[in-house]
Structures are given as structure tokens and as C-alpha cells.
Design a protein that fits this description.
heterodimer, A: Beta-Lactamase, Immunoglobulin-like, nine-stranded mixed beta sheet, 12% helix, 41% strand, B: 841 residues, mainly alpha, five-stranded antiparallel beta sheet, disordered N terminus, clathrin binding (chain B), Beta-adaptin-like protein (chain B), transport (chain B), TBP_dom_sf (chain B), AP_complex_bsu_1_2_4 (chain B)
Amino acid sequence: MISQFFVLSQRGDNIVFRDYRGDVAKGTAEIFFRKVKFWKEDGQEEAPPVFNVDGVNYFHVKVVGLLFVATTRVNVSPSLILELLQRVARVIKDYLGVLNEDSLRKNFVLVYELLDEVIDFGYVQTTSTEVLKSYIFNEPIVVDAARLQPLGPAAIFMQGTKRMPGTAVTKSVLANEPGGRKREEIFVDIIEKISVTFSSSGYILTSEIDGTIQMKSYLTGNPEIRLALNEDLSIGRGGGSVYDYRSSSGAGAVILDDCNFHESVRLDSFDMDRTLALIPPDGEFPVMNYRMTQEFKPPFRINCLIEEAGHLKAEVSLKVRAEFPSDIVANTIVVQMPLPNYTTRVSFELEPGAVGQRTDFKEANKKLEWGLKKIVGGSEHTLRAKLTFSQESHANITKEAGPVSMTFTIPMYNVSRLQVKYLQIAKKSSSYNPFRWVRYVTQANSYVARI
Amino acid sequence: MAPPAQSQRSPSPSQPSGKSEVSDLKLQLRQLAGSRAPGVDDSKRELFKKVISYMTVGIDVSSLFGEMVMCSATSDIVLKKMCYLYVGNYAKVNPDLALLTINFLQRDCNDEDPMIRGLALRSLCSLRVANFVEYLVGPLGSGLKDSNSYVRMVAVIGVLKLYHISASTCVDADFPSILKHLMLNDSDTQVVANCLSALQEIWSAEASTSEEASREREALISKPVIYYLLNRIREFSEWAQCLVLELVTKYVPSDSSEIFDIMNLLEDRLQHANGAVVLATIKVFLHLTLSMTDVHQQVYERIKAPLLTLVSSGSPEQSYAVLSHLHLLVMRAPYIFSSDYKHFYCQYNEPSYVKRLKLEMLTAVANESNTYEIVTELCEYAANVDIPIARESIRAVGKIALQQYDVNAIVDRLLQFLEMEKDYVTAEALVLVKDLLRKYPQWSHDCIAVVGNISSKNVQEPKAKAALIWMLGEYSQDMQDAPYILESLVENWDEEHSAEVRLHLLTAVMKCFFKRPPETQNALGTALAAGIADFHQDVHDRALFYYRILQYNVSVAERVVNPPKQAVSVFADTQSSEIKDRIFDEFNSLSVVYQKPSYMFTDKEHRGPFEFSDELGNLSIGGEAADNVVSAQRVEENDKDLLLTTSEKEETRGSSNNGSAYTAPYDGSSTSVFALQTHIESAISNPTAADHSPQASLAIDDLLGLGLPAAPAPPSPQLKLNTTAALDPSTFQHKWRQLPVALSQEYSVSPQGVAALTAPQALLRHMQSHSIHCIASGGQSPNFKFFFFAQKAEEASNYLVECIISTSSAKAQIKIKADDQSTSQAFSTLFQSALSKFGIP
């Protein structure tokens, strides 16, 4: 049960504010924003998603730089409220097509309409995009997706790491094609976030894949869909430690540690032929989440050397090798490395003929940053940097720098080898042949090499 | 609905300042009010939108109320909705004008479109004006009977809204029983779910004054209702499932086959993508199996994978909520998670609040087989750019060292920290080395060699400095320079701002003096003089005390200040097990995230529907002093006393002097410190005195010839209780907080007793007739909770009892605390015999 719901911009302005129960004094938005902004004096630490000020509990999630907030005085389930906030954001996105500050401001009446139906007197009524359709009368004012702004300087609200790749779909569930006809299509995205930690000698210390099969359906009449996965897929790593790599290597099977499913998924034949049956509700939703610690081939190898090079000087050499097929291209790659905090100057040397690369030394937090627009499978890139120090280093220089971390996105590639073998849509007529999009993407979650 | 925050913030250029715009709007609305021109609805929409947007940003547009109402006569549903929203926001501050809206809302409640009926009814109930309640009863009554489920759904919540405006009107109209009927018969699950929410709120609020309501609330967790809801659980929305599952945790099944049925039924809920559903299911599983140790453990194994999956999927906020729960479970049963330690490794980009939880989990699951890897990982974090986390990682290494038997490798690591030459790393490591030496004195050689190389000038943090000084004093015989380092520290007495450090310095100089008198004499004199002149009370007192005891007799002084030490074996837990249990009881709530039971952060009226009363909550745990409550069986008092730093020790003495069996009466004069010291020694040799039968413990004491300062009198064969005992609640609370648990037992309650226990009052009268008085009670069938007290007939010695009776299992769980622990067994017998006679005429 919640008392209030509101959405704040990065600057702390109320974009939407709904009071459901009137048992929390006004001014909560201000109290909340001040608290989040100045959680710790040094600004180093982020506010946790749940905190209590004077008996009022504040919950918040950050979505595209906006703060979705709920308040309550009751000792509720934090999971429930945080899920709810996330879901509200998703429902709004389903209706507006694009979710950002601009689209919210333009459509706030529609958003109020949604909020009234989603929650009544603090109790959740429905978060189903589908069910809500019959209650919603405003039409969305479409915001140009191309104007999707980079989120600007308020970086504290960036969710950086765990953000889902923007589904290219920016169409409202209410939208019609010109001519009043809906385009029949369905999107299935297999999104894998990978975490790998390499030891200083290049061994893999830990690795994990967190995957989601995300679906967004624009099919009329809600036909049933069958989604077939790898036949040799198995779930649960019977007994023993889940980190027992030896048992799994060799065999080609895809072994998930665990997974969970959306409400609408029926698993009647899952045990037999690994197919999921569902009638997809409108809007975007995760069909299945899965987790895997089975060994996989990491897409990138990172090599880092840091050596003293004379008095008050050191040299860094960073090498990144792409270990995936050459028809695959990774993009938006950023390599970061904290340098000793007495580093004053860094001069970079890129490999000859490098294109689409940038280098930077972040003075404030003594970080080296190397950005690459793209890396083609099989290729290797090197960066050299000369460091100048303000003082003699006493200890081992490698203890003062690193670890190297890396972020990237690799479209049409997934490391787990989990696949959608086919996507079957129950036919209404022989001419019914909706568009099906099955897309794969791999993203770095925490990709770290120690030095 | 209260108006949104009407902030006074200065208007930014992009936001209208208000006044002129509002009057402008007023004018335009007026013009449109009567118009029937085509397209007028569109212009109205634009205007309404403006009004709502002003409202949202906090500009007061309540002055437009009349105009808005005038414009609301429309069939355009979008306009209607905006109007309802506006009216809902401002009706409370404009009750007179709001009356104008009643008319059109009532009319809309009879519209033929169910959508309009529902909307109007919702708005009508949201006005929150007490004078209007008479207008609500009619529409609500027909709304509850409406053929359309949307209208019924709205009406049910409407009843709850009415209840909050005027409880008596709601109850008088008999709405709760209509809701009850709907809950058990409606075909729409959301209507059912809303009934459940509404009834829980209403009956919980009524239960304090009405026995009937309290019975009705009980009926919600009766078998027929629970089974009815459970059988339909898949039809409910995921949110309503959470509601039902929360209710199921309150249900007490009659036997184990019922437990397994419920668990089998809910098994697939663990695979739900919604974390809230999974956590609610886990709570059911954990609570159902509490008394079945084996199955309970299987549940832990079963829920591991789903929890880990939830932690790694979803938004960082969601995964934090789940991780907090995983953290709770790991802390309760670390051994079950010891092979999953790699899941608790920190990722470089995680927020600090996540890393902190993970560090604690890593510390907890460390055992012989994984310690090496965990410590290696933690050492990586120690070099982290995130300094607070680096510090905590070092502390984690230290904690692991203190909980392990094989600390060889860890000690090396810690010593390496000291050589890293980062101020904060050195500081943390020093504190740890100190604790380590107190537990493993055998390592002193290795450690001292390294510590001796640290220049005291590089250590600035008080805690670290105090640790260094402690080591200098304690091991002054092994450290060549100890007297001279101490001397230079004493010379800088005035620049030392921390009283803690100055206290340690005094003690360290004393210790050093006993070991190396000629070299230290000078420093000691200076230190005592400076200490006596110190403005800080504690420092002054300690210096004066040392001075006088030295004057009295140096060898006595040495026995007091520097007695041979016993290695510390167990660390006092920072949280009492009672608090932890209570947090566990409140699984899947904020208590888990905050790591505090709910009474510490919610007001009484906002607790959940099935919780014990406020006063009981406070009684059973007792506020801030909880940290110092140590259960006697688990942690030896002597350890605790030795481990606390000096300043903390002072506090504990002050607060625990009345009654703890381990502490000698402490009257504040210096002489009794000596008594305390011997007493601690006696406690060391006989730490579990309280658990032994009184005779046995006395025998041991005699054997050792120690003679406790307050030797317990041998129990009289028949313990007599004072029939007219009196104790005020605050004293009770105070004592409950101070005293360790003397006895914790489970009795069976006779079938007659179970039958007689329909309400707490029945048992109270019965126990009173046995001179056992109740100070607080609560709960409903099948779970009751009581706090009793009794006094010895001949002296003012109290017994305090916490008694939880479950009529479904016919068991009573008793915790006894006593001023005089030696007689607690006798008292327990008496208590049990009184309880067993309950219900037998």
C-alpha cells in the first residue's frame, strides 16, 4: 500500500504527483530530492532505493534519468513497491512509446489517467497494459524519438551499468499506422548481460550470464505464440557447487543455473521439447529471465601492463582482443582504468591509423578512459599511455592502479548459445503473416581485468 | 486527496509564477462554461490541461474551483476525468464548493456506461469531506451490487475510503459484512483482492475496540478462507497474489500434511518473474516449516537459486531489495550458502549499499574450505578506489580471521596491509591486529615486529591510534622503543583531541611502567599530572584513580591495571538474537532492508494488520540498549567486557549494574573495581554459572575459594511469591532489557487450557491467582503473547516472563529473566504448574 506516487526530473521538478491516501504530509517531494541529492556530504555514495525519513518510507527507481518515487508509512514489502514502480514506468512507456521527461510532460494527463487505474487508495489494481486499454481515453502526443537527448550532466541519475539496451521499439500500444491499420509485428529480444573477472594472469576468476528474453507484441487478437528454445537446454546444475566448471565443459549443452517466467507463460510442454507457450499481453515484458555460470568464451581478452619508466614516470600498455567471429561487430566500447592518485599528466599514443577512438584522462578521479566506436571480431587494439607522477611511488605500482574495466554492446551475438529456434504464431488465416523480429545482444555488466 | 505540494520555491523562468496566469485561466474558463459552440470541448481540454499542470508543479489553482465545476457538465470522458482529478485534489480545502460537485457525481454514478459509473464513484469517495458521507452510502451500496466488475472493484475500495472518513457510517451501513460476502463469492479476483485489503484494514482498526471485529479478523486466517483463496491463487493478478500469500503466512496449519499440501501448491510461484511474488512465497515456506528443522533446511536449499536469479535480473533497485533478503538468510544459515560465496563477490560498478551487504555475506560464509579465496578477493578490494569499501573489506578480513581457527595466512595478509602505506589501510589494519592479538596472543611476536615499524606520527585516526597505544602498553616488554614512543605521545598530550586516545594512553603508560619502571617513570608522572588536569571527566577520573591506587600499593595497582589476560574467544554480537528473530518474522518487509524490527521505524497505527501491540514490541527488545543485551548462554560475559573499548565499558557498567548476575554491585567508588576484577576472573573460570543448577555453581565457587560478592542464597525448597507484587511497566521494560535470559523453555498446554484460552484476559486472571501478574498481553487465537512478572515473598527480587502460547500447537514458549538467577528454575517449575492448572476447574 502506498500513499503517494510521483515522478521527478533530474532537477527535482514534479512532473507527475499523485496523492492516494493523504496520510503523508506535503513537501515529500522536496524532502526526498534533497535526501537523494545529498545522501552523504562527500557525494561519494548513492542513496539506497529505500530509506526512511521521519516515519515516511521513500522508494525510488531511476528510469531514463527520471526518478519514480512512492511513499508510505506502512511496513510494506520493498520488493513489491520497487517492482511496482518499475512496472508503472513500463506501462507508461507502453502508452507513450518513448519514455523521457519531454514525453511525460506532454502527456501528463494520460499519465494521470493511467495512475488512477493502476492504483486506487494505495492498492495496486492492475498493471496490465492490455487491461488498462479499456480505461484510457487520452491519446498520446508522440515525441520524436530522434530527440532522445543524452541525459546531460546529471550523471548521478544514470543507471549506467544495468540499463537495458533501448529496444528500438518506440511505438505506443495505442498508435495506429496511417490509414488506421496496425502493423502486425512482434519483437523478441534475447539480452545477455555478462560479468567476467580476470585475474592478473588472465585466468577467469568468476563469470556469469544474466539473460532475459524480452517480448513486445503488437499483434491484434492476441494469438497464441510458441517459442522454442535449444532442445538440449537444461536447467539446474544438479548438486555440488554451481561453480564447478569441469562438469559442464565439453558437452555442447546449454545449462542454465536457474530461470523464471512471466505470468503468461505456460510450461506444459517445456520439459518435453523446450517450448514456451504464451498469449502475449500487450506491451513490453520479460518472457523469461535466466542465469548461467556455465563456462563460456569471453568476447574480449584484456591485457594490461604498467611499468615504471624512469623517475616520476610510468608507462601503461592496454591491449584488447576481440575473440568473436569477424562478421560480428561490437560497438560503444569504453575501457577504463584507475591510475595512481599522484598521477598528474597522461599522454596517449594510439596505434597508427586508428579511427573512431578517443582517449581521456579524468583528472578528478584519476581515471584513464579509452573509447572505441567499434571493434570487429578477431581484431586487436592497443593503447599506450605515458604517465607523469607528482611524487615517488613507494609501493608496488600495480597495487596503486587498476583494475581495468570495460563496457560494450555486441549486437546479434550471444555468449550463452541460448537460441530461439522458432517463433510460431497461431494463424488466423492463411494470409496472416506478421513480422517477427528476433534479435540478440550481449552487454557488459561487470567486465573486469585485474592487473 | 490533499493538494500536491504547494511549494514556495522561487519560480523558474520556465514555470509560470501563478497569480496572473491563474486569473487568466479563470476568465477563459468562464467564457467556455456556458458555451455550446462546436469544438468547445477541445478548448476546454486545453484549459483543463493547463490547470492540472499548474496543480502538478505546485501552483495553487484552488481558486478556479467554481469555474471548473461549471465547465464539467460535459459528456467528454477525457474532460470528466481531468475534472474529477482536480476536484479530488481541492475538495478538502473547498468543502462548500465541493458540494456543487456532489450532484453531477451522483448523477454519473447512475450512468449507463459502467466506466462512467466507476469513475464517478471513485471520485465521489475521494473527496474526503466528512460532511458528505451521507451522499456516499447510497451510491456505494448500489456500486457493490453493480453487474459490472469494474464498478464493484471501485466500490470496494470506496468502502475503505468511507471508513477512513467516517468509520461509524461505514460500519453502521453494514458494509464490512457485504465485503465479506463479496470476498467469498465474487467471480472477479480483483474484487476479491480489494475486499481482502479493505477488510484487513477495517477489522484491524476496529479490533482494538470491538471483540467482534477481532473475531472477524481472525476469521480471515481460518482454514476455509485460506483454502478458498489458495485454490484460486493463479487467477489473481501478481499483486493480489502477494496479498494472499502474506495472509497465508499468518495461517497455522493443523498438521504437517497440510503444510506439504500448501507448499506443493505454491511451489511454482518460486519461478515467478516478479520478485515480490517469490519473496512472499518464500516467506510462507519459511514460516510453515519453522518447527520442522529438516524441511526448513530443504527450503533454504530450494530458494537459493530463485533468489540468486532475482538478484541478477531486473533493475538494480529490485535486485537490492532481494539481496537484502538473501543477506538475512545468509546471516541466519551461513553454512548453507558457503559454496555460493562467489555470488557475493562485489562488482566494481555496484553501489556501496550493495557492496556492503555482500561484504557481510562473504564474511559470514567463510569457512575452512573457502577462506583462502574469499580473503584473496577481499584483499583486492582493499586497494579499491572506493575508500569506505576498502576500509570495510579490511574489516571483513579481520572478522574472518577472528572467526577462523586457522589464521596463519590471514595474519600475513593483515600485516601486508600495514605495509601498504595508505593511511586508511594502516588505520584499519591496526585496529584489526589489536583485536587479533586479543584472541590469538600467540601471534604477538610476528605482529609486534611489524607494528613496531609503524611511526605513530602516521597514525591519526583515534581508533587506530588507540589500538597502537594499547599494543605499546600491552607488549612493552617486547618492543624496544615502547617507553619512548609512549613518552613522546605523552609530551603531546595537549594536542591529542580524542579522549579515547588519552584514556588508552594513561593505561598504556601504567602497563609499561609495571614492566619497565625506570624507563617509564618519567612518562608516567607527566601522564598522570596531565590526566588529572584534563578537562574530560573520564580521563580525569582515571588518572586520579591510578594515582591513588599507586599511592596505596603498587602491586595492587598492577593486579588491577595489568592482570594476566585470558584470550577472547567469542565476540559479542552487535544485534541481539531477539531482534534478529523479529526481523526474520517480518520477512518480506522493510524491516529486512533497514535491518530493524518494524516498531523501530513505524508509528503504531501504521503497522501491519496482524502485529502485536506497540508496548509488547518495545518490551521484548528494548530500544537502543539492545546492542548490549547478550544472551547468557551464547556469549560469555567476560569476553564482552574485555572486548569493549574503555569508553564503551564505562557505559555498560553504568547501565547493567542492576541485576546482571555477572556483575558485582558497582557503587562507583574506585575500590569496587577490584572486586569487579576478581569477579570477572570468577566468571572466566565459571562462565556458564547461570546454566548450572545453583548448587553446582556454588560448589565450584567454594572449590575455587572465590566467594562471589553477592553469593546467591540457596533456593528455598518452596519458592513463595508475593501475592501483591507491583511493578510499573517502565521498570519492567528496563529490567527486561538489562537481564540475560535465565531460562528458555517450551511447555505443553493442556487441552483444557487451549479450550479456555479464547482471549488473553482469561489466562491473566488465572495466573494472578497464582501470584503471577501480567504486565502486557496481546495477540489473537491461535497466537497469544504475554509478559508476566512475579516477586519473591520475602524480598524484592523479580521474575520476568515472556510467554508465547500457540493454541494450535498447544505449546507455550517461555523465557524467564530473574534478578536472582539461581532461583529461576524453581520459579519456572512454579510457573509451569500454574499454567498447567489453567482451564481445569
